Amino acid sequence: MSNATSAHTMGQKTIRADEAAHFGKLAADWWNPKGSSAMLHKLNPVRLSFIREAIDSHFATDSRGVKPLAGKRALDVGCGAGLLCEPLARLGADVTGVDAAFENIAAAQAHAAGSGLTIDYQCGDVGQLGLAGFDLVTSMEVIEHVADKAAFVAALAAALAEGGLMILSTPNRTTQSRVLLVEGAEALGMVPRGTHHWDDFITPIELHDLLDAAGLKMGNPMGISWGPSRGLHLSDNLALNYIVTATRA
């Protein structure tokens, strides 16, 4: 990406006000494992297992070590109330969390303080905060909610340090995801109504092209599937949801 293109996309806002308002209303209940964010609590351990393996592989850290991110800076974009930021801090990282909803940031700050964790939480648009130099950049289930996906990916890329690792997860745009994640999950009350908009889901090929345009190379995606016996788990099936790494090309 040229400097001119980068500067242009970085100036664009990626936040949708209605999306920020929707998730802001859920802030007070975010840390309740049986509340409106229950599905995220079930999803978080699955994502963390992928993230830990990716960290050890990329940074050549010991898989038995408890602080693989010691001395490293981590940025979680669309952090909500800190469900991923806190585990990253416990893995040793100097963590910054960014979210569009001030209610989420307030809830995240309160929970981190109660947990004895020091995390830098900022409310705003990642493309306009001037963040840079992060060894790890994560954004979980966020890209499907932004106004401009190309500008959002460019902003994530700008925040990533040379030699850094990016990890993204998002629902795939398939018939299965429409039936199960949107129509089924919302009808059953598993996620709040209005959380998902199927047309905004992004396929792995589309994400690959967005990352490529931002000067990033996408790794092999891993699916996040659900089964009656195993619940949510990592799999080779990308039909519902997938998680993937990206590094500078």
Radius of gyration: 17 Å
- CATH homologous superfamily, by name? Vaccinia Virus protein VP39
Shape: globular
User: CATH fold name, please?
Assistant: Rossmann fold
At CATH level 2, the architecture is 3-Layer(aba) Sandwich
Number of helices: 8
Give the H and E element order. HHHEHEHEEHEHHEEEE
Return residue spans where pLDDT drops below 50 for at least 5 consecutive residues.
1-11
According to DSSP, the number of beta strands is: 9
CATH class: Alpha Beta
Number of domains: 1
Strand content: 15-25%
What does this structure look like?
- The protein is of the alpha/beta class and 249 residues long.
- It has a single domain (3-171, 202-248), classed as Vaccinia Virus protein VP39 (Rossmann fold), CATH 3.40.50.150.
- Helix content is 37%, strand content 22%.
- Strand 1 (73-77), helix 4 (85-90) and strand 2 form a beta-alpha-beta unit.
- It starts with a helix and ends with a strand.
Question: Layout of SSEs?
Answer:
Blueprint: H1 3-10, H2 17-24, H3 38-59, E1 73-77, H4 85-90, E2 94-99, H5 102-114, E3 120-123, E4 134-140, H6 149-159, E5 160-171, H7 175-187, H8 204-213, E6 216-218, E7 222-227, E8 231-235, E9 241-248
Parallel strand pairs: 1-2, 1-4, 2-3, 4-5
Antiparallel strand pairs: 5-9, 6-9, 7-8, 7-9
